[in-house]
Amino acid sequence: NTVLASIKQHIRGVAYNTAGKFSLKELIALISEAKLFIGPSTGPMHIAAATAVPVVAIFSPVKVQSVKRWGPYSKESVAIAPRVECPAKLKCLGEKCTYYNCMDTVSVDEVYEAARKIYDESIQQMGLSLSF
Prior knowledge:
Elements: H1 2-9, H2 24-32, E1 37-40, H3 43-50, E2 55-58, H4 67-70, E3 77-80, H5 108-125
Parallel strand pairs: 1-2, 2-3
């Protein structure tokens, strides 16, 4: 997968592609051990929130995928979405949309800063002082 290969190129440490390699039970166990979860609005994001893992969730602006309805419901979480008024109701309009490529407006820096803030706050609550 070219997206996964691109992500791996930007990671300083070791990265593993575990897509499709775990049962649901194993995935829950793995995610529940994480210090932070960053990902799209999917089942694993909800697993992270439900197991008290801090979450940075990335949402599309499509109305049926709203952050208000489907966002992670934990106080250590934040949801990020493009700041556009999406004309779609049921699905993305693609190239027909005025805001085509709206997800590109969510920057890596925005996600990183949200993750850093949540991670730093969770570390402080544990009485530790770490930085990344």
